[in-house]
Design brief:
By secondary structure, the chain is an alpha+beta fold. The protein has 19 helices and 26 strands. Strands 1, 2, 3, 4, 5, 6, 7, 8 and 9 form a nine-stranded mixed beta sheet that branches.
Length: 595
Amino acid sequence: MAIRQLSPETVNRIAAGEVIERPASVVKELVENAIDSGATQIEIVITEGGLSLIRVTDDGSGMSADDLALAVERHATSKLDEEDLFDIRSLGFRGEALPSIGSIAELEIRSRLREADQGFSMRVVRGAKESIKPAAANPGTVVEVRDLFSATPARLKFLKSERAETMAVTDVVRRLAMAHPEIGFTLQTGEKRPVVYPRGERSSSAWLERIGAIMGREFMADALEVSGGGSGALGPMRVFGFIGLPTLHRPDSMQQFLFVNGRSVKDKLLIGAVRAAYGDLIPRGRSPLLAIFLDVAPPDVDVNVHPAKAEVRFRDAGRVRGLMIGAMRQALEAAGHRASAQGGVLTVESFSAGVLPSVTPALASEPLGFAESGPGPATFAAVDTPSADMRVPDESRVEQSIDKPLGAVRAQVHENYIVAQTRDGLVIVDQHAAHERLVYEKLKAALVNGGVATQGLLIPAIVILDPDDAELLQNRAAELAELGLVLEAFGEGAVAVRETPALLGDTDIDGLVKDLAAELRADGTARALKDRLEAVASRMACHGSVRSGRRLTVEEMNALLRQMEATPYSGQCNHGRPTYVALKLSDIERLFGRR
């Protein structure tokens, strides 16, 4: 078959297949255009999940008649200065969204410059452009898209339900609204109430307010502010945002929002940095909640590597990763012993009003007056000895400790839970989980400060690898030696392991080395070895900590609380569970109907 040039209409539809995957893709492109135009208020209206109607209205700079005619042409844009693809300072830049949309739907644009007396409108019906006409319009732009995919009906078979498409549109708007608190957003999806994000400022408090409106008040109560800066390959870098306490986590990553230069991305490098920053603070298979914004110099990042611009490439990925991990770890360490506020809330919600056993008729007929009661068995004789330390603490010491974050010890209950009083409530501490974390942190500090003790092998273990993996391990031999794994080249495609970390004991050397090679190839880190060392330290901490069922003295319990206050990450145990729950006095009073 002879090669022939495709028609412009077919070319546009092919391009639309790359850019316009579903109605949410259209909303993303149109809202990004509105943001680039300098809008301060954006309204989005959709019906039937966006298939029947998508309308985006903004109060941005607007367009003249000449600009409007060019806007629906392929690769026509006002956002590239000198056509430099490595200096992109806007969300859109390819100039293919509007012509792609117009090729598969009915597209109408009404726009008016802020300083103009009248506006103009233009329609594109499934690739056929109509002439520009004068139109009554407010300053800004209104873009309407009707009957999406009517020119490519086969695409409709691959869409999900109306509800699923509506949820996808909502997610797109949430992400764009989160990145731009200085812009007001309104989303009407056919529900009774529209979703409204009021316009704010680009300040830390306004950002947290916008993030809280999207992620929930629960996140706001447990959010830690992240801030850090550094130098990239060609310009400065800055990371800021909010991350949740380690005790606040979910089974999926739906509540993780990552942005690069105001653009929402799902980048493997940044996801790996999040995982490395939290490390062993959350259980396996769980994901922390966060909203992180990374600003880098435009020449240091390539945003033109994905059709939907959902992925990016960094000029110096190592610096970006280091900045992200450092900033997040600093925030987590500064949080100290803090645990999620949700623990107290859930505890209060789990309480119910007490109901005494029903009284039998025989007992009900007996006199109840205290004066009439004669000698007999004590009322509480049938109750077992309470599982609690009832010794009264020294009140002078109580007054000294009651203002501390975890308060002063009042009792030990069921030989495992420490009850402490604070100035505005009480704290219940799991003594085993708390001490386990303290011991674990000491062991980790010893590994870092004292180095990792090694054990020499009588006969070096030879591990056969892919030649590229073997070379990668050899290049990182010094780093691996610091973690206790000493290896060297052994011909082509093999390494000889001479020493392993003593903490690992008799380990699977072949599997360990191959896991390390895979991780170095994937994200440049030797996480497998560090994870194994920390896993052993965790098990040692579990066995070396105060056991459940052990009675502690008041002095021991108070000492445990003071150590928790001074130790980072002590708000959760090695398995990611909270080590204590705090109850406010107001919550306790509410349980008894006093509030």
